[in-house]
Every structure is written in C-alpha cells, then in structure tokens.
Amino acid sequence: MKYFIMFGPPGAGKGTHAAPMVKKYKLKHISTGELLRSEIAAGTELGKQAQALIEKGDFVPDVVVEGMIANTFAANPHVKGFLLDGFPRTIQQAIDLDEMLESRDEKVTGVISLMIPDEEIKARIKGRALVEGRADDANDETIANRIRTYHAKTEPLIEIYKEKGVYHEINGLGTIEEVQQRVFDLMDEIC
Ligand code: AP5
Ligand code: MG
After folding, report:
1. Tens digits of residue pLDDT in 11-67
2. Nearest bound ligand to CA 6?
3. I need a surface site. Which of 11, 14, 117, 168 has the fewest CB within 10 A?
4. What are phi and psi of 85, to 5 degrees?
5. Of 82, 51, 52, 57, which Cα lies nearest the Cα of 69?
6. Run of H or E residues at 113
7. Residue 90 forms part of a structural domain
8. Mean pLDDT in the chain?
9. For residue 147, how far is its CA from the centre of ligand 2 (angstroms)?
10. Tally of structural domains, the chain
11. Residue 16 structural domain
12. 65, part of any domain
C-alpha cells in the first residue's frame, strides 16, 4: 500500500492537484479539511466543536483528525494507496501517523510539497472566497492566522520528512496545468 502526503500552506493547490492525482494513480483521497467541512454541514457534534476553531483559522485537536484518518484507512482495505491532503500538520500528527502505519507494517511513501509565497496564498484564498464561500476564507485575520499557524506548526514537518528521505518539493507557482505536470512527473518517478 502506498501512502502519499500532499503538503503545503493554505491555498498552495493541495486540493486542486489531489483530484486528478487520485484518478491517475488510483489512490483514495483523504482531505481532513473536507471531512471536517462535511461534519459541519451535517451539524454533527464533532462539526459543532470544529466549526469555531476552523473559522478562527486554528487547528482542531490532533485526536479528532487522527480518528478520521484511522476510520478512512479501516474503511478502504482494498485500495492501492492513500493521498493524505492536509494531514499531518503538527509534529504530533506526524509521529502518530508513523505509529499508525508501523502497526500496518507500512510507511510514508512520499511527501509532495507545493510551495508558494505568503502573498500568493492571500491572493489565491481571496479568489477562492468569491467562488466557494468557505467560512475560513472570509476574513483577513483568519487567513493571516492560518498562514502564521502553518509556519509555526506545520513547516517543521519538512525537516522530519527530509530526514526520512521522502520529501519532494515542487514550485507551486505557474498555471494550474504547469504545476500539475510537475506533480505528475514527480509521481511517475516515486510511485
Ligand atoms: P484545509 O481544508 O486543509 O485548508 P488549508 O490547508 O488551509 O488548505 P486549503 O484547502 O485552503 O488550500 P489548498 O492547498 O487545498 O488549495 P486549493 O487547491 O484549494 O483545512 C481547513 C481547516 O481545517 C484548517 O485551517 C484547520 O482548522 C482544519 N484542519 C484540517 N486538517 C487539519 C489537521 N490535520 N489538523 C488540525 N486541523 C485541521 O487552491 C486554492 C485556490 O487557488 C483555489 O481557488 C484554486 O483554484 C487556486 N489555484 C490552485 N492552483 C493555482 C495556480 N497554480 N494558479 C492560480 N490559482 C491556483
Ligand atoms: Mg484544500
């Protein structure tokens, strides 16, 4: 089983590129952000707890997202692999993912890291706000908090995955088609 991680700051294009990747490489897509938004839309207890945190641009507790990941792994025993989008994003989540995979006698296959500068993050999120209406795209302070939180809590994972030899960085600037070609070229190498 292959385990790929789609890594990058908010608005880097993780979701945009995950969709064609799962089709081409026959992977199961797990977006923790999308799963949380579904819980909010369905009005579940978990969704109610997550909503306030997400709307401020804060992370939900590790245990919540890890439960969603474990459930999706368990519910998909026959897929070729998984594409994790937006997970892990804290050091603790990376440690816990390793444990989850070790218990299955598996490990992370590759991290595909899409990199864009902070100014581009803001521009892309403002563009998406006009189209998708996500609550966490709606105000500048939430967007700024998401960017700060990424640098403080998620960026340190880069060193962890570099040390494991599975980190691959891609320039996220350019047209969607240009970036997608870079992603596919990398996947063809590491898949
Ligand atoms: P999540 O939904 O994962 O949000 P995010 O990480 O902030 O990332 P985004 O979905 O905003 O961006 P993306 O990289 O997918 O970019 P996209 O392809 O849409 O998480 C939301 C929240 O849930 C978190 O803030 C947190 O509260 C919580 N959460 C989720 N996971 C968690 C975890 N593991 N632990 C704790 N809490 C968690 O592209 C963005 C826009 O740019 C789109 O409009 C797109 O069309 C456009 N675009 C893409 N590529 C290009 C390009 N090359 N040129 C021009 N425009 C482009
Ligand atoms: Mg996304």
Report:
1. 999 999 999 999 999 999 999 999 999 999 999 999 999 999 999 999 999 999 999
2. 1
3. 117
4. -125, 110
5. 82
6. strand 110-115
7. yes
8. 97
9. 14
10. 1
11. 2-27+79-190
12. no
Q: What is the pLDDT of residue 36?
A: 98
Backbone angles phi, psi at 83, to 5 degrees: -115, 105
Residue 170 CA to residue 153 CA, distance in Å, equals 20
How high is the pLDDT of residue 125? Answer: 98
Q: Is 47 part of any domain? A: no
- Is 142 part of a structural domain of the chain? yes
Q: For ligand 1, which residues put their CB under 6 angstroms from it?
A: 8, 10-16, 32-33, 36, 53-54, 57-60, 65, 86-87, 89, 93, 124, 127-128, 136, 146, 174-176, 179
Residues 124/130, Cβ–Cβ less than 8 Å: no
Beta bridge partners of 110: 4
pLDDT tens, position by position, 107-131 = 999 999 999 999 999 999 999 999 9
Give me 155's structure tokens.
């960026």
Q: Which distant-in-sequence residues (6+ apart) come within 8 Å of 25 by Cβ? A: 80, 81, 83, 187, 191
Centre of ligand 1 from the C-alpha of residue 19, in Å: 13
10 with 142: CB under 8 angstroms?
Answer: no
Crossing angle between the packed helical segments 140-149 and 118-132, to the nearest 10 degrees: 130
Nearest CA to 157 out of 92, 65, 80 is that of: 92
Please check whether residue 180 is in contact with residue 170, taking contact to mean a CB–CB distance below 8 angstroms: no
The predicted structure's pLDDT at residue 108: 98
